[in-house]
Amino acid sequence: MIIYKDAFFPEEEFLSDAYPIKLIDDIIYEVDCQLVTVKKGVDVDIGANPSAEEAEEALEDGSEQVNNIVNAFNLQEISFDKKAYQGYLKKYVKKLAEKVKENNPDIDLKAWQEKVTNVSKKVLSNFNDYQFFTGKNFEQEGMIALLNYREDGITPYFTLFKDGLIEEKVVCINILSLNYINLDYQLLQINIHHYIINYSKAELFKFL
């Protein structure tokens, strides 16, 4: 599995390839996500949007509805007014351009900047439609992930600058059932990382 981390703060994880990632114009990633129901204290992505009735029953059982990517990577929502976000974006894009040029000296930086400007204009023109998320450590000088909804008004999706992320491969095990490894659920929870991602009807576990 590939984990996508902040290029400036690698301890901040934002995505994995277990989610449907689309590369748009070679400049941003768009990633559809969904609301899932989890039991408090158990980080499990059930991988499906519950019906209103199911959601109500789950909440009565002490569960809660969360965004699956926010929950899996412990993303932290922050607030911006438009002026503050413009200030952040100006500093971040300048820093990102330097990193892009350093990593790829032959890049057409002007063309890259035009693409970034187009994305920025789209976000700013629809500013009130977005929510903003840092990684788990609230690093506000690095990647800020943008959450919006598709035209159906139901499907949430994240937007992230491609060049603001680095990839790291991690070793996972594909577990079809808990009996397969002869461990009970409570013991398994102690030995896994803080998130579990639903993928191809099996869970992917990242070990500590």
TrEMBL record:
Record InterPro entries: Mss4-like_sf (IPR011057), Mss4/transl-control_tumour (IPR011323), TCTP (IPR034737), Translation_control_tumour_CS (IPR018103), Translational_control_tumour_p (IPR018105)
**What protein name is recorded for this chain?**
Translationally-controlled tumor protein homolog
Q: Which GO terms describe its molecular function?
A: calcium ion binding
Q: Name one GO cellular component term.
A: cytoplasm
Spell out the family assignment given in the record's similarity comment.
Belongs to the TCTP family.
The uppermost taxa in this organism's lineage are:
Eukaryota, Fungi, Fungi incertae sedis, Mucoromycota, Glomeromycotina
One Pfam match: TCTP
Annotated TM spans: none
What is the species of this protein? Rhizophagus clarus
What region holds the TCTP domain? Answer: 1-170
